[in-house]
Every structure is written in C-alpha cells, then in structure tokens.
C-alpha cells in the first residue's frame, strides 16, 4: 500500500513538472531521472558570449564581432543600433547561422540577409539606416568629432521577427573620428573660417583642404578622420546653396585657405591636395582651372562636375540649375533625384569649365550611383 501511494505521488509530481516546463505531459516514475538530468543540463548551459574587438576604434577601422556558446546551426541576428546627435536612431543587422562549435564571426561568416549580405566585416556600420518609423530625409552625421559614436551591438535568436525576442547578449562599442593626439585648431582669418586638424607628432605632414557641399556649414568629421591617418587637414566653411543667389565665387577665400595651409610649419608645402564634395567639388574644379595661385598637387572630386560657368558667377550657375529643375524627379522612396539636372547642364558648353590645362599631379573623380544626388 505504501509503495503504491509513493508511485502515485511520483506520477503526479512528474505530470506537474511536465505541464509547467512544457517538457512532457505524462511520464512514469523510471523516466523522472532522465527528465531531471535534461533540465539540469539546460540550466547549467553557458550563456551566449558576444565580443567586439577593439572595443574602441576609429570609425573606419575594421573590428571583429563574434558570438560564442550558441547551439550548433542556430539562426541568430547580429544587430547594431546608434542614436545620433539629432536624436534619431539608426540600425543595421545581419542574419547568421552558427557553426558546429556554436560560434558566429561577423568578420569571417556570411550574412544570409538583413541590411547587408555576404561577408561584410563592417556591414554593421556602413549599412546603417533609420529605424522603421523614423523621420523622412535623415542623414547620419557627426557634429561633435571630439565625442565618440556609441554603437550598441546585440545578438538575437532567430531571423524573421528577431526584434520580438529578448536579446541574448549586448555590448556597447565606441567609434571615433579623432585618434589620440590629434590637435583641433579653430581658424578665423580675414573672413575665412575653418578647423585645422593636425596629426600627432612633430611632422611635417602632407596637407588637405576639405570643401563640403551646398548644405553649407562646417562639417569636421572627414577632416578629423584624415588627420587621424596622418594628413594635416583643414575643414573649410562653405556657403549654403540658398546663400549663393546673386553672388560671385570669391576666389580669394579659397586661395587664402590653401596659402595658410601650405605655410603652416607642420605641413609639407609641396604636398597639399584638395577634396571637394558635390558643390564643393564644383568649386575646386573651377578654382584649379581659373585661379593663378590655387594649384594643389592632388584634386579629388566627389559627385561634382566642371559645370560652373567660365565667368565664375555663382548666380549663373544657380539660374542654370533651377532652369533645368523640371528634370528632377522622385524615386520610389519619394527622394528627389537631381542626376538629370546635372546631365542637362553638362550639355550646355557655356556652363563647362575647361580643366584641360590644369596642372595637378593627380585627379580623382568619384561618381555616385544612378540615383544619387550630385549637386548638394
């Protein structure tokens, strides 16, 4: 009688254990030890470990992201999240399958989908986009280059609907635009305004003038990063496109900047180049063609063309651009595409700058894809 009652109690206990844990519904006494061993092994299994190396690095420095202690052949998603200084959130993610050891290496393994695919060690950074529901027309930009870009990297279980799962592990990493020892010097001379970044060490260093596009202002992050790689770089404040109507291009503004950089004691005077983006690239192509003193050794034109009129009037450029504004169009994402506006301006011989007689050592022209803006 006692043995029968003990057996019944054991069966009831096992039924309760199974219904609570979802492991079994009915189990007889001899199997209870097997169930308990499985539950104990599950409770003692190590948690996934997420590691990022280096944890602090330049924003363009490759880093290694790896996950350990996963089950073999487990689908997981590695996700990055950054809140910009504009208080907007940006994300990137890749879908991975763990190997037979239960590990994932973002640097070595293939992503099977997400915001990037294939073997992309830096995909968690370069493929960042606004999170769903964000404001329209955002740009990821760095305003305070002396503060790090904080990126939260997390691993989730599964692929589709991974956001519904609790994170398995998470790490915060710092991405910097300024390397240790880089000096930041604000420059204001006779109406010229810029920021000079000087690499660590005695020098002398090759120099770069950095001219941005028609958004105006004084972006510093490209200049800071160039200085972190050994180039004394001056980010030069540019004009906003809306401020140019009715004005002419002041050659002296840019000539003064180049002269100041060439004569800096920590700059190699005969190794100074210029990089321009969009409207800034249009300016520098005109300057190198028409200015008697603006003669850099290297000219890098990013998404810009030689379409500034030969008389140097920005008003003429402004009018020509908006005369062809009907060539602009909206894409499937409701983004304004300017490509055909620029192409139409290139068909007008009076809008072209003759760059054939420019005497630079190196010219590099970088074009964007077919749907990219080329005039900002």
From TrEMBL:
It holds the Pfam family Bile_Hydr_Trans. It comes from the Eukaryota. This is Peroxisomal succinyl-coenzyme A thioesterase-like isoform X3. Belongs to the C/M/P thioester hydrolase family. It comes from Betta splendens (Siamese fighting fish). GO terms for biological process: acyl-CoA metabolic process; fatty acid metabolic process. One of its GO terms (molecular function) is fatty acyl-CoA hydrolase activity. Residues 60-188 form the Acyl-CoA thioester hydrolase/bile acid-CoA amino acid N-acetyltransferase domain. Residues 250-313 form the BAAT/Acyl-CoA thioester hydrolase C-terminal domain. The lineage of its organism: Eukaryota, Metazoa, Chordata, Craniata, Vertebrata. InterPro entries: AB_hydrolase_fold, Acyl-CoA_thioEstase_long-chain, BAAT_C, Thio_Ohase/aa_AcTrfase, Thio_Ohase/BAAT_N.
